């Protein structure tokens, strides 16, 4: 599946989750439900994917984790915040860079209309 098709599919699934649950829940609830939808759509999804830092010849396991990784190429970072900040943008861009992933979605479920809480990033 091409990247644009993949991100479009995931956005549609996220909208489905948001339509059913609405805003106001914890991030973990949305993560579980979105992972369920992604898995049921036939895509490979990994939850809380560890992301080590490689520095020169050492591997540092410092507890960085990607919320959801789809088809080993799409990073999904979920939030339930009033609004995105530069820290949120830096976080997903760093995960994409460290894992050499081509695309990412930052999704904020704390919105009335989910499409207003989605940002797409390309590495």
So, CATH architecture? 3-Layer(aba) Sandwich
Shape: globular
Please trace the helix and strand order, writing H or E for each element. Answer: HHEEEEEHEE
CATH secondary-structure class: Alpha Beta
What is the fold-level CATH name, i.e. the topology?
A: Trna Endonuclease, Chain: A, domain 1
Task: Output the number of helix runs.
Answer: 3
Could you tell me how far the N terminus lies from the C terminus, measured between alpha carbons in angstroms?
18 Å
Tell me the β content.
Answer: 25-35%
> Biggest sheet: strands side by side, in what order?
1-4-5-6-7
For the secondary structure, the number of strands is 7
Arithmetic mean pLDDT: 95
Helix content: 25-40%
Largest sheet composition:
5 strands, mixed
Summed up, the domain count is 1
Structural Rg: 14 Å
Which structural class do the helices and strands define?
Answer: alpha+beta
Contiguous uncertain segments of 5+ residues: none
SSE diagram, text form:
Blueprint (H helix, E strand, L loop, with lengths): L2 H19 L5 H14 L4 E6 L2 E3 L2 E3 L4 E6 L3 E6 L6 H14 L3 E6 L9 E5 L1
Parallel strand pairs: 5-6
Antiparallel strand pairs: 1-4, 2-3, 4-5, 6-7
Helix pairs in contact: 1-2
